[in-house]
Design goal:
Layout (H helix, E strand, L loop, with lengths): L1 E11 L2 E12 L3 E5 L6 H8 L7 E6 L9 H5 L2 E4 L11 H6 L14 H13 L15 H13 L5 E4 L8 H16 L3 E6 L2 H7 L2 E6 L2 E6 L1 H4 L2 H8 L3 E8 L2 E8 L2
């Protein structure tokens, strides 16, 4: 899987959101997209997914523009995981995951035993198969995020785009969700996730894309790219970066201060 973005600009009317953004990603990369509120992270994702068409520049997924793909073709390339979901109907977790295969079924066809087994396998791979028969509105926020992730996995897409996957989750559930996301990168998926937590980028990302004012402020390996100066400029507050060691493994952490 190859994502190539070159000189992308996007505006809502006269309000410029993205300016001259260039970026590329390949298989197995776990990429954190950082930036303050309103910087264009969600717009960036919507352009990649073909929901929005840039005014200029190009976006290619395996050499083809997402706006030129059918919905079924694009679903086989990229899967989107929103930051939250509150379905109107209390479908079971298994039913919700099975819906991820809708683009693979012929018109008016219902999922059969093969599709249900694939959905169960996705749940098992994320450690939540015990939730299969639970109502999707009767599980925790962290469990719901893993359900949405399982639904994305059954699409058979090799690129996963996640909009703040740990938003509104408690400390423990945030850790559990990010640990699962890490295993997907190790399995060869290309994962782009937006976050407001630089420490998630330090711990989990192989690359970081920092956006400010609709432009690329920094792009590279987190430990080298997310300096105190870069983080302070990105968020408009003083930020210290320190090294810590846990069980013999080095980590970098960011600490805001006044």
């Amino acid at each position: 899987m190859r994502l190539e973005i070159e000189n992308v600009c996007f505006s809502y009317g006269e309000r410029e959101i993205l300016h001259d953004v260039s970026f590329s990603a390949g298989s197995g990369e776990l990429i954190a997209v950082l930036g303050p509120n309103g910087v264009g992270k969600s717009t960036f994702f919507q352009c990649v997914l073909g929901y929005l068409k840039p005014q200029s520049g190009s976006i290619l997924i395996d050499g083809k523009s997402p706006t030129e793909m059918s919905r079924a073709e694009l679903a086989g390339k990229a899967a989107y995981i929103p930051q939250s979901a509150s379905p109107v109907y209390n479908y079971t977790v298994l039913e919700m995951v099975t819906m991820g295969m809708a683009a693979q079924l012929k018109l008016l066809r219902s999922p059969g035993p093969e599709q249900k087994e694939r959905a169960m396998e996705a749940l098992r791979s994320l450690g939540v198969s015990h939730l299969a028969e639970r109502g999707c509105n009767q599980i925790s926020g962290g469990e719901r995020q893993l359900m949405l992730l399982a639904r994305a996995l059954v699409q058979d897409a090799k690129m996963l785009i996640m909009d703040e996957p740990t938003a509104n989750l408690d400390y423990g559930n945030s850790f559990r969700v990010m640990e699962r996301i890490r295993t997907l990168g190790e399995a060869g998926y290309t994962v782009l996730f937006s976050t407001h937590e630089p420490n998630q980028a330090f711990r989990y990302a192989s690359r970081v894309l920092a956006l400010k004012g609709g432009r690329v402020l920094a792009d590279g390996v987190p430990g080298e790219t997310l300096s105190e100066e870069t983080l302070s400029e990105l968020y408009g507050i003083p930020v210290a970066v320190r090294g810590v060691t846990l069980k013999g493994e080095p980590f970098r952490v960011s600490i805001p201060y006044e």
